[in-house]
């Protein structure tokens, strides 16, 4: 039987907008209590208020050890446990490498790779003690193939794929599941698409998917029976060629 999320405690990083916010909304809809994290206090507070009473916002930059510790330890203190971690925080930089800003690339790698590893590392002692829990990492189709207009972003997501695959094997026998969800073109702020009309047009033509589509797939992964792990789920718009 599918596993429910009613009464579970979930932490979602990078959740002030886009996929993270949609995932938080979906987990709340399915009965979970959700702690959302993001760097921007203003956007985070707006998201937490919109998501409702069972959602709490914590300002946290996943590249900072003290922020991650405060997020994880604070959630356990407030709720008694963590059942689900959705490590979603990430940034995007595309374009030709020789024209890119080295500082922006460093931020991308630090956030997309180190930030995820740091957050997963922080929650694992708690999950291992309980011998239960789920970790879901937001990857990308770029983690399954190197895309030429975003080579450093692709590298960061390839690193996440290797991390998830290695961690899954380390966690065998612990009761903890870990998997990665890898979207293609998602029509949200990360892709520079916010106009509702443009979103609907591209969805109708199969050129993009909504953040809510990714959230629905994420919830599916998290609600499989405990003997089932979905290690990888790639979700693409119908017409995306890569």
Keywords:
242 residues
Verbal overview:
This protein has one domain (9-235): 3-Layer(aba) Sandwich (Rossmann fold). It is globular, with a radius of gyration of 17 Å. It is α/β, with parallel strands linked by helices and 242 residues long. The chain has helices at 18-29, 41-51, 65-79, 102-130, 151-170, 196-204, 211-222, and strands spanning 9-13, 33-38, 55-59, 84-87, 133-138, 176-183, 232-235. The longest helix is centred in the middle third of the chain and has 29 residues, at 102-130. Helix 4 packs parallel to helix 5 (151-170). It has a 7-stranded parallel sheet with strand order 3-2-1-4-5-6-7, with helices on both faces. The protein is built from 7 helices and 7 strands. 45% of the residues lie in helices and 16% in strands.
Number of helices: 7
Q: Spell out the CATH superfamily.
A: NAD(P)-binding Rossmann-like Domain
| Structural class by secondary-structure content | alpha/beta
Tertiary shape: globular
Please tell me the CATH architecture by its name: 3-Layer(aba) Sandwich
How many domain units? Answer: 1
Model regions low in confidence, pLDDT < 50 over at least 5 residues = none
* Oligomeric category: single chain
Fraction of helical residues: 40-55%
